[in-house]
Design a protein that fits this description.
Blueprint lengths: L3 H7 L2 E4 L13 H11 L8 H5 L3 H11 L4 H16 L8 H10 L4 E4 L4 H10 L8 E3 L14 H10 L6 E5 L2 H10 L2 E5 L3 H9 L4 E3 L2 H8 L2
Parallel strand pairs: 1-2, 1-4, 2-3, 4-5, 5-6
Helix pairs in contact: 1-11, 2-4, 2-5, 4-5, 5-7, 6-11
């Protein structure tokens, strides 16, 4: 497996997932509360057991788009409200801001590419005094959950913002979908794993490197 240091040094731009690598936006029980808030906009709708039980508000949003499209706007608004609330309370992932500062010093543009709403990301970065450390934000397109990662749309937009080709960028994310979309678009993938199971899963789907901490990226890039 290629080291994270080699990938970051070789990259002309960094595509960075938000929830996880930048901040744990919705740790338990915040995630469950967000999913409940999204489901509240589906009052009177018969929803399947998996949607009724999920703690992933975006899973509720995806289901709504295909199975209750007349409620999509309301569920989207509920998801945005939940993300904004979380963005006003979350804290930076350890090492994330140090990594962003290092990228700026090295002239490597960073674009946030996320399934979360851009407004929540902006709110969070402003709280962290980090908005000036990134090139731009590509967040969820309203009313289009079909374009969420692993669909390549968000990554193509991020590459355009960074003004690089796919094979010149590395995507850092904590989910299987991040690795999937990086490989589908021709970018390299670094997995950020919060535990041993996540490390195994990210490696199994093809991440070129997996780190357990954003500090690992920072330390390795100084070698």
């Amino acid at each position: 497996m290629t080291s994270a240091a080699e990938l970051v040094h070789a990259a002309k731009a960094i595509l960075l997932d938000f929830d996880g690598p930048v901040t744990p936006l919705m740790p338990p029980p915040v995630n469950a509360q967000a999913a409940d808030h999204a489901r509240a906009a589906l009052t009177g709708v018969d929803i399947p057991a998996d949607v009724a039980a999920t703690t992933d508000h975006l899973a509720v949003l995806r289901w709504t788009a295909t199975s209750a499209p007349d409620r999509l706007a309301a569920v989207e608004e509920a998801c945005i409200a939940a993300e904004l609330k979380a963005a006003r309370a979350c804290e930076p992932t350890a090492g994330a801001l140090d990594f962003l500062r290092w990228c700026q010093q090295q002239g490597k543009p960073v674009v946030i590419v996320s399934n979360n709403a851009a407004g929540a990301i902006t709110t969070c970065l402003n709280r962290f005094d980090a908005a000036g450390l990134i090139r731009g934000i590509v967040g969820r397109e309203p009313r289009r959950p079909d374009l969420l990662k692993p669909h390549p749309s968000l990554v193509w937009a991020a590459l355009d913002l960074a003004q690089v080709q796919a094979d010149e960028a590395v995507l850092i994310g904590d989910s299987v979908t991040d690795v999937d979309v990086a490989l589908a678009t021709g970018s390299q993938a670094i997995g950020y794993a919060k535990n041993a199971d996540r490390r195994r899963r990210l490696g199994a789907v093809g991440a070129s490197s997996v780190v357990d901490s954003m500090f690992e990226l920072l330390v390795e890039t100084h070698i």
